[in-house]
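The freezer alarm interrupted the setup, so I double-checked each line after restarting. Inputs confirmed:
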Amino acid sequence: MHESAVHEDLAWIRSLMDESHRFLGGTWRHQVVWGIVGVTGMLGTYVSLSTGRFGLIPWLWVVSIGGGWFYSLVVARRAETSAAVRNAAARAFGGIWIGLGVTLTLLGGLTLFTGALEPSALSGVIALVFGSGYFASGFVAGLRWMQGVAVGWWVGGVVLLYWPSPSGLLLLAAMIVVLEIGPALRLRAIANRADTLRG
Amino acid sequence: MSDSDSFDYRSLDDVIHSRIRLAVMAILASVDDAEFTYLRDRVGATDGNLSTHISKLADAGYVEATKELTNGRAASRYRLTTEGRSAFRTYLGRMERLLGGIGDE
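Predicted 3D structure, all chains:
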């Protein structure tokens, strides 16, 4: 056998290992669902503020966040057990986002029901937490573009904290579409990629 | 072809040294476990061909299979055994040494 053939074999082995190691399977579904939860909540809150229906806001979030957790803990649990591949990257990815999801739920609850956090600061804090999540996720999955997404979240977070206003809710909703649902669709494309590695 | 163009592949594990079996071992070495369909799609083999190769790996004790009922269907999942992981590491090490040896000539 030629040396070049052995080099090709080794490169092929490495690419197979690399792809399988980084395979995140159906994790993108959580992002889409939570993205819809976030956009619904932000737009609903904006409309409630604009129309003076302040009492609706906490319940709007209770229902939307409750729906998100129901999906992640009940509906998606079944899908996870049937994932085509189980690997360390998907486990770490799930762990990061469950941890951050609990953090965001607590922050939101404390802000809405106790006033422990200034409501106008919540959007910026959410964006900064998302930035940390994407940075860590990109790191464990070896996806550099996801770390670029984190920078977008951090920049948006600084803007939202520096210029707090009700229209920040619209900015955050737009960020969720571009920087959460967008990356989720990219992960979906990676998971569905049909580039079989034929010898 | 000159001698320097060739490698001595006799030192390599025959069970692993097939393109499809090598691909299966490489994938399973980088995950906890994987479904048959994932392996088939990644390797680009037919169901029958892949089954034959996986059976050889299982007979050698390198791969173990489990059946799981998910969404109302039985799915076969595969993982590397400790012996299989060790054999794969040895195989890769020998491949790399062979290349290093050629590079030194």
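Quick read of the result. The radius of gyration of chain B is 16 Å.
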